[in-house]
Amino acid sequence: MKATLYLIWTACLLLSTSLKAQDWALVDSLEHQKSLYEQLKKEDARSFTSHLNFQFCTSFTTGFQDFSLDQASFKLNRLRMEVLGRFFDKFSYHFRYTYNKYTNPNTVDELSTHVELANMGWDITDRFTLTAGKQFFMLGGYEYYVNSIRVREFSDFNNYTPAYLTGISGTYQIKPHQSLTLEVANNRVETEAEINVGTGSYMPKVPLMGALNWVGKFCNDQALQFYYSAAAGQILRDRGIYYLTFGNVWERGPVLAYLDCLYSREEVDSKGLVSSIQSVEKESPMTAQYVQYLTWIANFDYRLHPKLNMYVKGVYESGSVYKDNWIYQKGTYRQTWNTQLCFEYYPLKKRDLQVFLHLSYKKIHFPELAKQIGGKDYSTQQIMLGMLYTIPVI
């Protein structure tokens, strides 16, 4: 009995000693600890800057299909939190979290798809900046380049192209208003892509995409702007994807006008717009191969009054197959026309708050080749009355 009590007492003593040792290693939550910046900064270093904002867009949306009411409901179109800033003069950071996307933990970069941006920048010289982390996929075109919260309705091309990829990029400032960016990033987010091209197809071991982007702004007030890009990568082993995208912008006074041209050549249909046409009842439908997409976007904004803006946008898109495969013969499978009209009212001087009325008409046409595999023409119409507010917190 004494031996048992002795063992219990010894065990308690050892446990108590262990807990004390752990307590000594813990940081006192009441004690003021210097941040990493405070520990490392020099007397002449610039202050750490930090900006936090919430981007909020909500609307009452009425949708129609072939002019027949489909649904009318209140929607929270976008809700995002953004933190960005600089430290040590040469370093920057940019984080953005969206609440509108689904959560997918099985991603190539091991990051929730809710996280749109998570990157750090380093100004190595006055002209060269290195950025690492999740960042913009450096395609061209104004609609793709501008902050997405300002776009009421994207083209199909931009809507089905990944906008944020994890990788590294280097930007060289050629001239004060011209830059050249080289980027290498993951060519997709999800590890299990819904791709089925039959036997003998494998995901690449190095799923990377390379992009070269040029931005040029000309005239004294930078009214003439160009956003050009070329990109290439692999979807499957020995199956590539290629992009050529161009944005041409004129912005002066009350006028903002742009013309975008977007083209992709895909040896496996990554956007799925052609593949989705087939209505053949199959447990695992085949993915189309050797497809190409072409999109033209023309937009004209006019400021009617300091607090009132309007724009009209026209979009033409086509999806086609350039080489016979499975049930897909060479030819055009999808054509889309989209017209948008929007009125925007800004109650505040800083234009952080916006009330808008947006009207959209979209016609999807399936040529004869598409009708043979189940395609059927239809149109959609949409009316949105909403409010957008970028809330500057700090």
From TrEMBL:
Signal peptide (residue range): 1-21
Keywords per UniProt: Signal
Cited InterPro entries: Porin_dom_sf, Porin_O/P
Pfam families: Porin_O_P
Segments crossing the lipid bilayer: none
Keyword Cytoplasm: no
Gene3D superfamilies in UniProt: Porin (2.40.160.10)
Manganese found in the keyword field: no
Protein name: Porin
Source species: Parabacteroides absconsus
